């Protein structure tokens, strides 16, 4: 089933891996951006808002791409996982917001590029590591 059942909650392993990778990204970025506290605070605010926008658009756009679910069961539709189209919609929304804030706040390209690169590499590596370790142990 690839899910952890905790009472009435069913949590997919992928969500746990993503959460663990997100915590790793947070720890690494705290270290990498420690020199400039103003940039660090702004960057984390924008990054968290971008991730929340991604989640909202990922979960909400399933109703746009599959409007027939509105007639069947609205809350059931929100519990479904989206596909590639929904993921791309969420990525576009979060990415546009992040780019807009990057331009608005006039971050240095060196600082922002370094933080984005560290975040991407850390997330991918930590997600892969957690997934591999979990399936080797279990």
Describe it.
Keywords: Membrane, Transmembrane, Transmembrane helix. It comes from Mesobacillus foraminis. This is Prolipoprotein diacylglyceryl transferase. The chain crosses the membrane at residues 6-29, 50-67, 87-103, 115-137. The chain has 138 residues and is mainly alpha-helical. The chain has one domain. 80% of the residues lie in helices and 6% in strands. The protein has helices at residues 13-32, 37-65, 68-72, 74-78, 84-105, 109-137, and strands spanning 3-6, 9-12. The chain has a two-stranded antiparallel sheet with strand order 1-2. Helix 1 runs antiparallel to helix 6 and helix 2 runs antiparallel to helix 5. The chain is flat and about 50 Å long. It starts with a strand and ends with a helix. The model has no long low-confidence stretch (mean pLDDT 91).
Q: In a nutshell, what does this entry contain?
A:
The chain has 6 helices and 2 strands; from the N terminus they run E-E-H-H-H-H-H-H. With 138 residues, it is mainly alpha-helical. The protein has one domain.
Mean pLDDT: 91
Task: Summarize the helix and strand pattern as letters.
Answer: EEHHHHHH
Low-pLDDT segments: none
What gyration radius follows from the Cα positions, in whole Å?
17 Å
Query: What count of structural domains?
Result: 1
Structural class: mainly alpha
The strand order across the widest sheet is 1-2
Helix content: over 70%
Biggest beta-sheet profile: 2 strands, antiparallel
Our count of helices gives 6
Shape: flat
Number of strands: 2
How much beta, percentage-wise? 5-15%
Distance between the termini: 13 Å
């Amino acid at each position: 089933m690839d899910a952890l059942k905790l009472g009435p909650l069913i949590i997919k392993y992928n969500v746990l891996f993503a959460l663990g990778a997100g915590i790793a990204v947070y720890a690494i970025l705290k270290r990498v951006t420690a020199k400039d506290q103003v940039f660090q605070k702004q960057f984390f605010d924008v990054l968290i808002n971008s991730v929340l926008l991604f989640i909202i658009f990922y979960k909400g756009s399933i109703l746009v791409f599959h409007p027939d679910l509105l007639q069947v069961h609205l809350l059931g539709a929100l519990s479904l996982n989206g596909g590639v189209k929904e993921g791309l919609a969420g990525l576009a929304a979060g990415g546009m917001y992040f780019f807009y804030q990057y331009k608005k706040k006039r971050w240095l390209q060196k600082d922002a590029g370094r933080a984005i690169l560290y975040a991407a590499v850390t997330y991918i590596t930590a997600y892969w590591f957690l997934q591999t370790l979990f399936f080797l142990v279990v």
